[in-house]
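hey so i finally got around to running the thing on that chain from the lab meeting. sorry it took forever, my laptop kept dying and i had to restart like 3 times. anyway pasting the input first so we r on the same page abt which one it is
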Amino acid sequence: MKSVELFAGAGGLALGTAEAGLTHKVVIEWDENAASTLRRNHDDGVKHARDWTIVQGDVKDYDFQQHHDEVMFVSGGPPCQPFSIGGKHRGKDDGRNMFPQAVRAVREIRPLAFMFENVRGLLRENFSKYFGYIVHQLRYPTVKPKGDEEWTDHLARLERIHTAGEDTGLNYNVVFQCVNAVDYGVPQHRWRVFVIGIRSDLGIEYAYPRATHEQDALLHDVWVSGDYWERHGIPKKRRLSPPAVLSKRIGRLRSSMREMLGSPWRTVRDAISDLPKISAARKTSKIANHYLNLGAKSYPGHTGSPLDEPAKALKAGDHGVPGGENMLRSEDGEVRYFSVRECARLQCFPDNWYFEGSWTESMRQLGNAVPVALAEQIAQPLVNLLRHSKKTATKRR
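ok and heres what got predicted. didnt touch it at all, straight out
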C-alpha cells in the first residue's frame, strides 16, 4: 500500500509504518542532519529505506497533487515543539506548526487513510480549542479558510458542518488517543498522541490496539519470581532489594498467578545489556554510533534512568541535549550519557540504522523520534482494515 511520509525526522514513524505494510513512495524531511540520516540508510541498502525516495526540503513547497492517483495513505509527525511541555508553548502561533500542511497533504492526495502523531502536550487544556480545530480540518479537509478568515471563524464553520452531518465531498472519520510507548513493549516511558482518519465512504472504523505490556508483570518478575534476574544472569548477591514504597503492591503480587499477567514492561537492561562495553574511543567501536560522550552530571530533577526500569523519555532539547533524561544511572548513583546506539535501542531502531551528524545532533534526532515498535503496533490494525475492506480497491475519487 503506497504512502507518503511527512516530517520524517530520523525515520522512526516511517520504519514502523513500513513494518506494518506501507510502502513509502516519498519520505520528506527538511532538517539537514535528519535527511542525511535517511539518505545514509537508503544508500546503505537498509531494509525499507533502500526503497524510499527521500526529499529534503520545506513541505510547504511540496506538490502533493502529483500523488493523488497512486497514494492511499499519508503519515507523519508534524514538529512537536509548538506543543511540547518542554518547549515555548506557542502552539498555533509557532512558525514550526505544520498541521496546516498535514491538512493540505490530505486534501490534495485524498488518501484512504492517514496517521499523524505528536506529543501529549497537544492535548493540554490551553491548546484544546486549537486541537479541536486540527481535528475538524482533518475531518473536512476540502473546507478551506476563506481569504483572511480567522481560524476561530473557520472552526465555527467546520463545527456547523459537523453538527449538520454534511457531506463535503471528502470526509474522514477521525479518532485520536494518547498512549504510553512502555505499554507496547518499548523500553521507555514515552507518551504520544496518534490522530487517525479513515475516509468515511469506506464504512470502516479503527480501534486502537490494547496494551501488550504491563508494570505488574515486571514487578512480579523482579521482586516475586526473580525471573527477570535469571534472564540476565544476575547472581542473587547483586540483585536489588525491593523499595519500601512498593511493599504492599509486591505483597499483592505474591498471591497472584503469573499467567494472569501480561508481558512485563521492558527495561533499559533488556534493551542494551548485550551491547559491547562502552568506550570514549569513537573510532574503535565495533557498533555504529556506540561510544561514550563525557561530561554527564546529576542534579536535582535530572538523575538519569535506572538500569532496571524503563527509561525516562528521551528528549531533544531546544539548547542541546538535556542531561537527566538522556543519562543512565547505575546502582551506585554514578551517571553517564547513553550512547547514540543505546538511545536507538530505547527507540527500537534496528542496529544497522546509522545516525548522521554530531553526538548532539544525533541525540536530537532520537529525542524527536517515534519508537519504531510503537508506530508499527498503532499502524498495523489500520493497514489490516484497509487491506481487507471490500471497498478499498474501488473507492478512489
